[in-house]
Amino acid sequence: MVKGARVAPAILLAALVATISAAVEHFVPPDSGLRINRSGRSAGAVIRTGSAVYPRKAVDSDAFEVRMARPARRIVSQYWAIDEYVYSVAPPERVVAVSESAYLPNISNVFRQVQQYRPAIATDPERVLRLDPDLLMVSSTSRQDFCALVRSADVPIYRVNTTFTTLAQVAETIRLTGYLTGQDEAAQAEIARFWQSIESAKARRKSPAKPPRILGFSGHSSYGTDTLFDDIVRTLGGINVGAAGGLKGYDSINSEQIVRWNPEWIVAGANHGKVREVMTALLADPAIATTQAAHDGHILVVQFNVFLPTSPFTTLLVRAIAEAIYG
Amino acid sequence: MGRSRLRVPVFYAVLTPVLILSFLSATGIGSTSVGWPTILRVAASKLLPVGWIQMNDITRADTVIVWLIRVPRVLVAAFVGMGLAVAGAVMQALFRNPLAEPALVGTGSGAVLGAVIAFVTGWSARSVISVPLAAITGALLALVVVYAISTRGGVTPLGTLLLAGIATTSLLGSASSLLLSLNVANWQIAQEIVFWTMGGLDARSWTHVWLCAPFVMLGTVAAFVQSRDLDLLQQGEESAASLGVDVETSKRTLALTAAILTGACVAVAGMVGFVGLIVPHAVRLLVGPSNRVLIPASGLTGAAFLVLCDLAARTVHPPVEIRLGVITALLGGPLFIALLLRRFREVNTV
Amino acid sequence: MSVLEARGISVVRGGRRILHDVGLRIESGAVTALAGPNGSGKSTLLRALAGIWTVSEGSVVLDEVPLQARSRRDVASRIAFVAQDIRIDFAFTVAEIVAMGRYPHRGRFDREAAADRQAVDEAMEWCGIASLRGRCANTLSGGERQRVVIARGLAVQPDFILLDEPTANLDIEHAIRILDLCAALARAGKSIVVATHDLNAVARYTSRAALIDSGRIAYCGTRAEVVNSQTLEKVFQVRAERLLSADGSPVYMFHRKDT
Which residue, of A75, B252, B277, C27, has the fewest CB within 10 Å? Predict the structure, then answer.
C-alpha cells in the first residue's frame, strides 16, 4: 500500500486553517469585546480629561480615548449611580435614557425627574442606538461586548469607574461628568455644594469628642477598608469598626465579629416604609442585641435611597449620620 | 418498508424559501421596529457601490441597527447553525453512531475550555484570531481523548461513548468554570459561565462573523469532499479499508474537520447543544444518509434552524432573551431520548 | 488466472505475534477454507491476505507484486473483504450499499457509469437480493444483510473474495444459501477464501483448505488432504468421527478426546 499520502490531507487542512487565521488576523479589526473584566484589576485607570476646548478627549477606565465633538444633547446612562451624576449636572431634558433603577422609587434619587421627562430605559443595544445618543456613560462593570458594539457604531461611550472608595473620587467624577456632558459650570457648582454639605456635617462634631465606633450593616455584610462608607466615617471623625477589624472592601461578616467589635453606632438601610421593621429585626438579632449600640438605642436605619448612593447624593447619608450621632 | 425519501431537488425547493424567510424575519424583528423597505435599502446600500441607493430619509440609527446589530447576528446564527450541523454529521460517521454530536461527545466542552483559556490569559485581547484557534485546538484534543476512551478496534459502544462524553464535559466544563472564577471580576463570573455553557448571540458584531464564517465554510467543504469516506466509514472500518479507504488518515482528517467546525462555532456563540443531533437526523429522514447529499443539506438546514431558534430566543418573552442553548436543548432533549429508546428496542443493538 | 500468495508472513498486533512465518497460495476458481480453533489466527491471516492489516515480516503478493507496492485502489478493486460485522446503523438502501462496492473503480467525484450500474445489478442478482433493492438495510434480517454485504463485495468485480465467518450468526437455511452462493461463485471462476469454524461446511463446500494452529499452518492442500479425522484431532484436540451422508460426502461428529 502506498504510504505517500498518509498525513497529507490533515496537514493540508491545518495549513488552510493557518492561512485563514493569518488573513482574519490581518484584516479584521480587533473587538474589545474579547477582553474580560479581570478580578482584582484596579478598576481605575486614572481618569484623564483633556482640555476644555472642543473636540474634547477623555480616557476611560478601559484606557480608551473617547472623543466628544460638542456638548452632549442626548445623554444615555446605563448605571444607577451614573443616573444620579448625570441629573445632578446636566439639564434633565437632555437625558434620553437611564438605567432601570431610576424608575424604582425605593432606591432612586432621580425619581421625580424621570417621572417628569420619561427617558427610555437603556437595556439592549437596539433601543439605545435608536435614541441616537451622542454620549453614553456606562459602568466599568458592564459587559465588554456591548461597549464594543456601540464603539463600532461611532457613538462616544465612556466607561466610568464605579467602584467608589473615597468622597474625593465622587467629587472628581462629578467634574468628569461635567466635562463629558459639556456642563462644566454646573459641575463646579455641584462640587461646591457637595463639599459644603460635607463640611457642615463635619462641623457638627464637637471636638474633642471621643471618636464614635460605627458599624455599617447591610444584610450580613459590612464595609471595610477601601469603601465609600469607610471614607465617610473617617471624614466624620469616627472609627469604622469593620475596617479596624480587618475587613477589606465590602464583605460578609458573622455574628461573632459583631459581638467582638461591639460598635457604638450601627447604620443600616431599609425600603420605603420598612424603617421600623428593619430596626426591630436588627434589635432581635442576638449578636446585635449585645452591642453597645443596641443598649444605647444608637441604631440608625435610613431609607435605601439615602443609604446606597455613591454619587452626589451621598451627602444625604453623610448628613444623616452626622445628625444622628452629633445632633 | 422502504421509507420514502424526498428527491433532492424537492428538498432544496422547500428549504431555499425557508432559509430566505428565516433570514428576512430574523433581520426584520428586533426590540425596536424597523420597516421592511428600510432594511432592504440599508442592506443594498452596503452591498452595492456607493450612491446607487437613495439614503436621505434613512437615519443613522436605522443604518447602525440594521447593519451593525441585526445583520451580523443573523449571519453568526446561520454560520454557527451550519457548522454545528455538519460537525454532527461528521461525528456520526466517525463514531458510527447517530447520537454523536459536539455537545454530547465532549468536543464542545473542549472548545469552550480552549476559548476560556484564550480569554483568561489575555491572549484574546492581543490577537483576535486566538479565540477560534484555541477553541479548535481544545475541540480536537477533547475529541481525540473521548475517541481513545470509548473506541476499541473501530467499534464504539453507545453507552461508553455517552459516558465518556458526560465525563469529559463535566471535567472540562468544571475546569472552564474554575478558570473563569479565578480570573474574572466577581460580578461577571456567573454571566460568563452562562454564556459559555448555554450559548448566546447577544451583541454579536461583524468581527464575530469573520471569526466564524471562514472556518465553517472550510470545514463544510472539507466534509463534503470526504463524503465518500464518511459513507464507507459508516459501514465499518474494515469494510471501508477493503474498499480502498485509508482509514487512519481518514479518521484523522475527519476529526480535524469536526474540530474546526465545532471550535469556530463555540468561539463566537458559546456551547449551543443538540443542533448537531437534530438537524442531521431530520435531514436524513428526508433525503437519506448518503453524505454527498447530507452534508450540504444539513449545513443549510442547520443555518435556517439556528436563525429561527435565535429569533425564538429573542421573541418568546421580550425583553428577556432566553439563552440559545436552552431553546435547542428543549427541542433536542426529547429527540435524544426518543432515539435512545428506539435503539434499546432495536434487534441489532449496541 | 490470478494468484494471491502469503510468503512467510508474520503479523504482530498489540505486541503479540499472531502469525508465524505463514505461507499460503490462493488460486482462482476454488473455495479455500481457513479453519482453526478460536484465536489460531485465521481471521488475522484473512485480513493480511486482504491487505487490511499490515504484515511485520514477509509479504503478501498478488500476481508477483507485493500488496505494499500497489496502490490502495488497485488492491481494493481486485480483492474484496466481507467482514463479520454487518451492523448497519444508518438507513442506507440496499442499492446504495451494494453500489459502494464500485468505489474502488471510481474517482472521488465520478458519477455513476453504466458499467457501475450493471455490476451492481449483477451482484444483486447473484445474491438473490434484487427484490430488496429499495429497502433500508437496517430493517433487514441477518441473512439478508449478510447477502447484501456479499453483494457489495461482488460488485467490486474482484478476483478474490475473502469472507470472515460468513455463516456465524445465521440460521441454517441462510447459512446454506450463503455457502451455496460461495460454491457457485467459485464455479464461475472467482477465488473465494472463507475463514470459518464450521468444519462440516469446510468438509462439504470447499475444494482446498488450510488448518491453522497457534499462528502456524498445520495442514494445507486439497480438502481431502487437510480435512480428515487425524488432522482434525491434532488441531482441535477432539476425537473426530467420520460419517457418510446420503450423497457420499463426509460428515464429522466430534467427541471429547478421552471418551
Answer: C27
Q: Using alpha carbons, select from A187, A147, A140, A171 the residue that is nearest to residue A33.
A: A147
Which of B1, B3, B156, B235 to probe by mutation at the C interface, max C CB count within 10 Å? B235
Chains touching B (at least 3 CB pairs under 8 A) are A, C
In a domain, A32, yes or no: no
Which residues, numbered 318 to 337 in chain B, qualify as contacts with chain A under a Cβ-Cβ cut-off of 8 Å? 319
Please report the DSSP string for A79-137 in residue order.
Answer: SHHHHHHHHHHS-GGGEEEE-GGGG-TTT-SSHHHHHHH-PEE--SHHHHHHT--SEEE
Residue B1 sits at the chain C interface (C-beta within 8 Å):
yes
Q: Which chains touch A (3 or more CB pairs under 8 A)?
A: B, C
Number of domains in chain B: 1
CATH number of the domain to which A114 belongs: 3.40.50.1980
Q: Is residue B340 part of a domain?
A: no
- Type of residue found at B137: T
Fold of C3-255: Rossmann fold (3.40.50)
Which three cell numbers mark A11? 496537514
> For cell 447459512, what's the residue?
C175
Q: At what angle do helices B206-225 and A8-27 cross, to 10 degrees?
A: 160
DSSP, res B197: H
A182 and A103 co-located in one domain: yes
Would an 8 Å CB–CB cutoff place B274 in contact with chain A?
no
Tell me whether strands C208-213 and C31-35 are parallel, antiparallel or unpaired.
Answer: parallel
Contact (CB<8Å) A17/B69: no
Q: Note whether C54 and C214 are within 8 A (CB).
A: no
Chain B residue with the nearest C-alpha to that of C154 = B243
Judge if A117 and A254 occupy the same domain: no
Which of C76, C93, C100 is closest, CB to CB, to B2? C93
What are the pLDDT tens digits along chain C (259 aa)? 789 999 999 998 888 888 998 999 998 788 899 998 888 888 999 999 999 998 999 999 999 999 999 999 999 999 999 988 778 888 899 999 999 999 999 887 788 889 999 999 999 998 889 999 889 988 888 888 888 999 999 999 999 999 999 888 788 888 888 888 888 888 888 899 999 888 888 888 888 899 998 888 888 888 888 888 888 888 888 888 888 888 888 888 888 877 5
Cell numbers linked to A4: 505517500
Chain C, residues 61-90, CB within 8 A of chain B, namely 72-73, 75-77, 79-83, 85, 87-90
Q: Distance (Å, rounded) from C-alpha B160 to C-alpha B235?
A: 20
Could you say which of B243, B289, B290 has the minimum Cβ distance to residue C101?
A: B243
What are the phi and psi torsion angles at A72 (to 5°)?
-75, 135
Please state the ipTM of this predicted complex. 0.90
